[in-house]
Amino acid sequence: MSTIDRRTPLQSVLVYGVLLAFCLFAAFPVYWIVLTSLKSARDVYRTQEILIPVRLNFSNYERVFRDYEIANWIEISTILALASTFFALIVGILAGYSLTHFRYRGRHVLAVAVILSYVIPKGLLFIPLFLVLNQLGLIDTFLGLVLAHETFSVPFCTWLLYGYFKTLPKELVDSGRIDGCSPMAVLTKILLPLAAPSVATAAIFSFTTSWNEFLYAATLIVSSKYKTLPLGIAGFLRADTYNWGPMMAAATLAIIPMMALFVLLQRYVVKGLTIGAVKG
Amino acid sequence: MVHRARSATPVLRSIHFEQSTYGTFLVIPLVLILGGLLLYPMISAVGVSFRSKVIGGPGKYIGLGNYRELLFEDRVFFAVFVNTVIYAVSSVVFKLLLGFTAAVFLNERIVARNLFRGWILMPWIIPTLVVGLMFRWMFDQTGGVLNFIILKLGLMKIPPAWLAENVLAKGAVVFANVWRGFPFFMITILAGLQSISPELYEAAAMDGARGWQRLRSITIPGVRSVVLVVVMLSIIWTYNDFELLWVMTAGGPSYSTHIFVTYAYQLSFLGSRLGYASAVSLITTPIVILFILLLLPRLMREEE
């Protein structure tokens, strides 16, 4: 806090002790997923190796790729997350620019609608969305899934970029206009380069939320053709005996890309997390 | 925000007019998505909730029939309502306590703050579905690590079947939700703490304020508005939770962990009663609207 306020050694021990306890609390279940995934079918129910994995065994990973269509699920999830992020970014960038740098009737209402849409929970929207996509014949289609994902990605991306564009001085746009830039050139040449970190935040949020999404996949996808990774993993539960080993191997594969993104881009992830509550 | 200077000269005014049309044009995709994928579906669900619709057929118009059944005949719905309140309130309370504590300690003068912060954020990074499966496995009666520890430490002779007993299952799903959700509280409250000016603490220290007094008179008031926003967002999202509960218990045992969304899902996608399920979801919208109305001024505060 401040130089006036030095901690005694005992207080320092307390501070680091509490933080380490939180770290252990946060990490143990994750460790347990990975450890389970590395146990042979026989060892899964032997919990003796809690802390030190004695025999590492990769047969679960072989099994998920051999006996399940996990490669397919990963492919679907990746393309889905990329596609919905791509469209959400385009919509969000255009709308954020429009709402902050142009004047027209109804733009304030729209800004409020964006926030409302961000807050509306999936649990409230999934049946209505099913009804409408059903009317449109988009159940069990890739397009239907992408559209469903836009319901959370677009509001977040728009809101985040709206918030950022609002902070940019008007003079930037005005000078660009006076130099003869078209409105589109102002956006792509002047505003977007400055907004790159915000765009990155929006993209990461959108990608990870899509990658993790389960409820829409469970309601909109029927056949195995468009099974996403979470939907596929949930399918392990359906067997009579749960295959904890392969399930946790698949779970580990779902976690790894998220962890990698997070480790590389923690700054942006944290920014995306705090934007809702702190910014406004 | 308003380009007042611009309308002063006729030439620039014409640019401005052109820009407005242009701006409307740019916002069309947003309007289509909000209108077509959020507003229209919600409205059409209201229509469906007045029908006895099942999957595959239109059903017939029964007015408030679904709502009447829900409120006066469906015993399960009442249990679901109580469960939802218990689940949301207890989860949010514990998430706030843990998140606040972690944030206060992270805000201390420490080495490797980013490492600690990132590490504790781990539960938030992994897919919720995986969190649910993981806890189902950890709470497993025979192979679960929790019962293994209980046996090893000799705490109980016969460890419980966590997810098969009403009260224990309720506790288990709340625990899982808290584990998954407290980092969000931590990270937002930490951001709030970091926006408190250090001079306040220095002044307080000069006045001889002790740790607890500083917490009460500077820290807590300093993060009050952030906490309010996070709590309200979290209540909305927690009581509309689905994934965690569905894979951990699927609402069981005997409906003890069913909340609105899992119940609506069961009715619609396992029982095909779309009309009735729509009514179950929609009857909770007033709560969402209430919280949104409380939230909006705070979220929009920096407008204009």
What does this structure look like?
The complex is a heterodimer of chains A (280) and B (304). Chain A has two domains: 9-62; 68-279, MetI-like fold. The longest helix of chain A is centred in the first third of the chain and has 32 residues, at 70-101. Chain A has twelve helices and no strands. With 280 residues, chain A is an all-alpha fold. Helices cover 75% and strands 0% of the residues of chain A. In chain A, helix 3 (70-101) packs antiparallel against helix 8 (183-212), helix 6 crosses helix 8 and helix 7 (170-178) packs across helix 8 (183-212). By secondary structure, chain B is mainly α. Chain B has 15 helices and no strands. The longest helix of chain B has 32 residues, at 75-106. Chain B is globular. Mean pLDDT of chain B is 87; it is low at 1-14.
User: Can you tell me the CATH topology of the largest domain in chain B?
Assistant: MetI-like fold
Biggest pleated sheet of chain A: none
User: What is the mean pLDDT of chain B?
Assistant: 87
Low-pLDDT residue intervals, each spanning 5 or more residues of chain B: 1-14
Spell out the CATH superfamily of the largest domain in chain A.
MetI-like
Secondary structure: number of strands of chain B? 0
Number of helices of chain B: 15
Number of strands of chain A: 0
Structural class of chain A: mainly alpha
CATH architectural category of the largest domain in chain B: Orthogonal Bundle
- Count of runs of 4 or more consecutive helical residues of chain A: 12
Largest sheet, strands/sense/barrel of chain B: none
Global Rg of chain A: 23 Å
- Sequence of secondary-structure elements of chain B: HHHHHHHHHHHHHHH
In short:
The complex is a heterodimer of chains A (280) and B (304). With 280 residues, chain A is an all-alpha fold.
